[in-house]
């Protein structure tokens, strides 16, 4: 396809700048919903390329290139970092710290999930399409979404009117750099690809007492312990073997002294599932077990449930995914493959679901050390610069071209 070749040539012409830009984003990671410098640099790059844009909320950015009649394709790149001190050994490692607005504490920050590659991929695609307007027809939208790591950014963009800020897309596309694919490979999968998830803080109540007189109290530590034990029977005894589910108690907080029975305990619980029905079952089981154990322990008051970090199921549209897969195979050959289900979760689908738009979300291999690469959210997670940077941009261009380039005109 000569028009796709033209777009790839435009990418090649910007490689040096893209590498410098990637280094900047990597070294200036920012926390979720606090991506001020990041969004300002995105705007700077869009202005330099002459691409119209709008700002949504504090740090969300959308860019739109209208180029005649044709489909409307949206590309999404998330922009936030994590409160993790980078330990990748890269000479361009992030050393920034930032005050977390939620806690008031200063914490180290890094792009330990590869969102810097996602930003650069969408920017590169926008610039390439804007440069090569004779090669395609339609409208290309870039969505630079904040706050993915807290499941707040996509909802914020919906609340701040993304439906009115961009032309209604025909398709919504996104990718994520991973250590579970060979370097430079792209992996697609129809149907459920990323799990549905939620976290819940459970507070249970006891009656405080001296450690030597347990009969005078209700032991919140013991209560929390029995809850944990019982919760770990849910997946093994209540979920069908054909389904996939994870239930993790990641923290228990209670008490401060060995001879004091505390009057409360807090449990932090996280779940993952590949169907809404299974996720709903996990939620029901958690509340049922917690309430039953509290009653059995003579808890003086009802437990409290505080839900947070809720992520929807990411379930790729079959037809859209096949169209992208065909384009990848035609361009990348054997480096296009099937992606295994990823147990992590994303808020990617919130915007297309709110807009009523079909979507697909694929994986991008980022490490020569595959299959021994560090996992996302590891302090060592810093994908190899190349060919990851090039392939991320190429994948975005190739996928969008499946709608924006008229094959009969090549």
UniProtKB/TrEMBL annotation:
Cofactor: Mn(2+)
Record's cofactor remark: The Mn(2+) ion enhances activity.
InterPro entries from the UniProt entry: Amidohydrolase, Bact_exopeptidase_dim_dom, Peptidase_M20, Peptidase_M20_dimer
Pfam families: M20_dimer (PF07687), Peptidase_M20 (PF01546)
Binding positions for Mn(2+) per the UniProt entry: 113, 115, 149, 176, 377
Alphabetical UniProt keywords: Manganese, Metal-binding
Domain Peptidase M20 dimerisation: 198-295
UniProt keyword tRNA-binding, yes or no: no
Molecular function per GO: hydrolase activity; metal ion binding
Domain of life: Bacteria
Gene3D superfamilies referenced in this protein's UniProt entry, alphabetically: 3.30.70.360, Zn peptidases
Protein name, UniProt field: Amidohydrolase
Organism this protein belongs to: Corynebacterium lipophilum
């Amino acid at each position: 396809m000569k028009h796709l070749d033209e777009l790839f040539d435009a990418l090649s012409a910007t490689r040096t700048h893209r590498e410098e830009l990637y280094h900047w984003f990597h070294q200036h990671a920012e926390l979720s919903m606090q991506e001020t410098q990041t969004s300002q640099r995105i705007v700077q790059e869009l202005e330099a390329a002459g691409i119209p844009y709008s700002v949504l909320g504090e740090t969300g950015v959308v860019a739109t290139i209208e180029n005649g009649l044709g489909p409307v394709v949206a590309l999404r790149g998330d922009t936030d970092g994590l409160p993790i001190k980078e330990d990748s050994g890269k000479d361009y490692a992030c050393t920034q710290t930032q005050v977390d607005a939620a806690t008031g504490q200063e914490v180290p920050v890094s792009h330990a999930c590869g969102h810097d590659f996602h930003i650069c991929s969408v920017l590169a695609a926008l610039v390439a399409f804007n440069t090569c307007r004779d090669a395609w027809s339609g409208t290309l939208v870039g969505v630079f979404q904040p706050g993915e790591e807290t499941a707040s950014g996509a909802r914020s963009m919906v609340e701040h009117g993304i439906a009115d800020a961009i032309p209604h897309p025909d398709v919504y596309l996104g990718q994520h750099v991973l250590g579970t694919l060979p370097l430079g490979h792209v992996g697609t999968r129809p149907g459920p690809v990323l799990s549905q998830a939620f976290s819940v803080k459970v507070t249970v109540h006891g009656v405080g007492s001296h450690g030597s007189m347990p009969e005078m109290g209700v032991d919140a530590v013991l209560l929390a312990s029995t809850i944990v034990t019982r919760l770990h029977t849910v997946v093994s005894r209540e979920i069908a073997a054909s389904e996939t589910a994870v239930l993790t108690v990641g923290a228990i907080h209670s008490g401060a002294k060995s001879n004091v029975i505390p009057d409360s305990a807090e449990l932090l619980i996280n779940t993952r599932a590949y169907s809404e029905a299974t996720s709903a079952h996990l939620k029901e089981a958690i509340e049922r077990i917690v309430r039953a154990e509290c009653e059995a322990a003579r808890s003086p008051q009802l437990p409290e449930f505080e839900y947070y970090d809720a992520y929807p199921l990411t379930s790729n549209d079959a037809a859209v995914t096949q169209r992208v897969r065909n384009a990848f195979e035609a361009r990348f050959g054997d480096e296009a493959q099937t992606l295994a289900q990823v147990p992590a979760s994303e808020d990617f689908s919130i915007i297309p679901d709110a807009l009523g738009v079909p979507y697909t979300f694929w994986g991008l291999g980022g490490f020569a050390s595959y299959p021994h690469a560090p996992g996302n959210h590891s302090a060592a997670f810093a994908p190899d610069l190349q060919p990851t940077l090039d392939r991320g941009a190429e994948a975005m261009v190739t996928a969008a071209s499946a709608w924006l380039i008229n094959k009969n005109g090549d």
